[in-house]
Amino acid sequence: MTDAPQAPAHDEAHGGALGSRLNWLRAAVLGANDGVVSTAGLVVGVAGATDDRATLLTAGLAGLLAGSMSMAAGEYVSVSTQRDSEKAALAEEKRELREQPEAELAELTDLLEARGLSREVAREAAEQLTERDALRAHARVELGIDPDELTNPWHAAGASFLAFTVGALLPLLAIVLPPAQARLYVTVLSVLAALALAGWSSARLGDAPARPAILRNVGGGALAMAVTHAAGSLLGAAGV
Ligand SMILES: [Zn+2]
């Protein structure tokens, strides 16, 4: 559970709505990937120690719930904190606009000029923006945030919960549904296939080459399952 999906920040670089949608998608793939790897490691490990289906189901379900709730809680905390600091920055900006409007106009002019406008155009633009909605202009240009679109921590938490759960369901079902002799093969193969797909998707979403992303992702998952299975087998053999 290392890659907590980051709530999409205000990604101006990728241009507003599309960038924000891509960020959500990337976070969803990462969250699902986490659910696949951690639950697969868990159930494959327990399967090293026992053949009992009820035990496997209990372990897998507990892992699914613990993981998805930990992801959701972590996301809630981190987005709430981010939102609090954005609100504090907006309040500070509001106070400055009230107490020293001239200095704020000069500041906005400088910022726009730094973005490539000529001095006169920057001054004109700053005046118009200030007249229309000074706080929003400062929020966007100076702080890089949109005061109407602060990320909702509950939405971020729900999305994390859902993404992890969807990922975790795959190894959970793969370990409990097939007959006992086939369950390990079915789980390992379906997990590696899912990780290849997740690696490919995240590379595509990030405009990165697909092959290394797939290899890294599949390799990481394979390692996780190998380690937990070895540990589970040792414990099982020792009769713990
Ligand atoms: Zn300002």
UniProtKB/TrEMBL annotation:
Keyword DNA damage: no
Primary location group: membrane
Xref: CDD domains: Nodulin-21_like_1
Keywords, in A-Z order: Membrane, Transmembrane, Transmembrane helix
Pfam families: VIT1
Signal peptide: none
Places the protein is found: Endomembrane system
InterPro entries, A to Z: Ccc1_fam (IPR008217)
Lipid bilayer topology: Multi-pass membrane protein
Transmembrane segments: 154-177, 184-202, 214-238
PANTHER family attached to this UniProt entry: FE(2+)/MN(2+) TRANSPORTER PCL1
UniProt protein name: VIT family protein
Organism: Streptomyces ficellus
Source taxonomy: Bacteria, Bacillati, Actinomycetota, Actinomycetes, Kitasatosporales
